[in-house]
Specification:
mainly alpha; 6 helices
C-alpha cells in the first residue's frame, strides 16, 4: 500500500482506505455501475465516489507510463507462429 501511495501520489484519506478506493474503481470499470449505485453500496456521497475513482484512474495512468512499454518495430512487424501455421491466413 505504501508503495502505491508514494509512487503514484495517491492521497491518503481517513474516511476511505486505499483498498476501498481501488474496489470502487474496479467495480465501476468491470460492472459499469453508476456513481449512485456505488455510493449506496459503499455508503459515501457521489462526489466522494467520483473523486476516489479519478484518484485511482490517475494512479493507473502513472502506472501505465512506468510499466507498459511500447513495442519495438521488429515486434510489431513479426507475425505470430499461430498465424503462420494457420492455413486460413
Amino acid at each position: 500500500e505504501f508503495f502505491f501511495v508514494k509512487l503514484f501520489k495517491f492521497n491518503i484519506s481517513t474516511n476511505i482506505s486505499l483498498d476501498e478506493s481501488v474496489a470502487i474503481f474496479l467495480i465501476i470499470c468491470a460492472q459499469n455501475d453508476t456513481q449512485g449505485d456505488i455510493a449506496l453500496r459503499f455508503g459515501h456521497v457521489q462526489e466522494t465516489i467520483w473523486r476516489k475513482f479519478h484518484y485511482v484512474l490517475k494512479a493507473m495512468e502513472r502506472l501505465a507510463v512506468e510499466y507498459i512499454l511500447p513495442r519495438t518495430v521488429e515486434e510489431l512487424r513479426a507475425i505470430s507462429n499461430r498465424l503462420q501455421d494457420d492455413t486460413r491466413y
